[in-house]
Amino acid sequence: MKPMSSRERFLTALKRQQPDRVPWFESYVHRGLADRIVGRKTDLPPGWRTPPDLYKILCLDTITYNFRPPFYAIMEKNGDVEQLKEGLLKTRDDLKALKEFLPDPENPDFYRGAEELLSFARQNGLAAIAGIRVGLSNTYNSMGYENFSYALYDDPGFIEESMELIGEWCIKVIELVNDLGFDAAYISEDIAFKWGPMFSPEHFRKYMLPHMKKVVDHIAIPRIYHTDGNPLPMLKDLVEELNICAIANLEHGAVDIFQVKEEWGDKLCLIGNMDLHYTLTMGTPEETVLEAKEKLEKVGKGGGYIISSSNGLTEYCKAENILALNGAILRYGVYF
C-alpha cells in the first residue's frame, strides 16, 4: 500500500476503513511531558494542545486546537494545571453573569492561533482537530456537582437554561470553525464515571441530550465524541441523536474495547484505551509495547481503530513509555 499522509491515514480510519497503519491521536500532550521527551523546554502556542516540537520525534497523526468555553468558576492553579475549586453558577440569577463572563465568540483574536495551527498541520500533513464543547460539562462544572445533582431533581429547568445559554455561545463558535478547514470536531463532554453513567440515561435523554443535539447539529465536519468512564448504556443515544462517527477515548478498565469492537465496530471508529492508570504512567516500556501490540493487532484488524491514551498524555506519563508506544505503533500498527 502506498504510504499515506497523517491526515489521509486519520480520515481513512475515521471512516472505518483500513489505512496504511493505525493512526495515533492524542487530544493533548502536557508540556512537561513534552519537555522530557524532547530534552529541552518546548513552545506551546496559545490554544494549541500539543507542543509542535514533538512532531519531530513522535508519529502522532493529529493536532488539536482548543475552542472550548471556560468554566464559570473559581479556578486554582497547581503548577501549570488549572483545577476547578468552586462553581459560581448557583441560581438562575447568575445566568446573566455567566453570559457576560463568556468570551466574545466573534472576536478574531479568539481564532488567530487556530489559523497558525492549521498552517502547521498543512505543512506537516497532519489532521487538524477542533476541540469543542456543547454545553453539558460547562453546566455541571459551573454549577458544581452537588448543586447540579440537586437541580436535576428539584429544578431541571435551571440546568436546561444554562445549557441553552452556553450552547448558543458554542453554536456561534462552531459556525465559524466550520469554515476554517479543520478535519474533525472533538466533542469533549464527560457523561460517565468508571462504573457507569454520571446520571440516569432517562435524565440524560430528557434534559440534556436535546440541548446537545441542537448544538451538534451545527457541526459540518466529522464528529468525534469523548467521555471518560463507561458511557456504553448511552452510546446508542450518542450515535443516533448526535450522529457521531467515532467514540473516544474508551477508558481502560472502564470498558472492554475488544467487546466494543465486536458490538460497534461496524458503526463507529474506536479511539483510545491505552491504560493511563498503570501502563503509560507506572508501567515499563516492555509492558507498554505488549499492551499496544494487542490493541493494534486485535482492535485495529480491518481498520476503524485509532490508537490513543484513555484521555490524553498527562505530565505524569513516563517519557520512556511514550517512546515505547511510538515504536510499537510503527512496528505493529502497519497493515500488510
TrEMBL record:
<protein>
    <submittedName>
        <fullName>Uroporphyrinogen decarboxylase</fullName>
        <ecNumber>4.1.1.37</ecNumber>
    </submittedName>
</protein>
<feature type="domain" description="Uroporphyrinogen decarboxylase (URO-D)">
    <location>
        <begin position="142"/>
        <end position="328"/>
    </location>
</feature>
<keyword id="KW-0456">Lyase</keyword>
<dbReference type="GO" id="GO:0004853">
    <property type="term" value="F:uroporphyrinogen decarboxylase activity"/>
</dbReference>
<dbReference type="GO" id="GO:0006779">
    <property type="term" value="P:porphyrin-containing compound biosynthetic process"/>
</dbReference>
<dbReference type="InterPro" id="IPR052024">
    <property type="entry name" value="Methanogen_methyltrans"/>
</dbReference>
<dbReference type="InterPro" id="IPR038071">
    <property type="entry name" value="UROD/MetE-like_sf"/>
</dbReference>
<dbReference type="InterPro" id="IPR000257">
    <property type="entry name" value="Uroporphyrinogen_deCOase"/>
</dbReference>
<dbReference type="Pfam" id="PF01208">
    <property type="entry name" value="URO-D"/>
</dbReference>
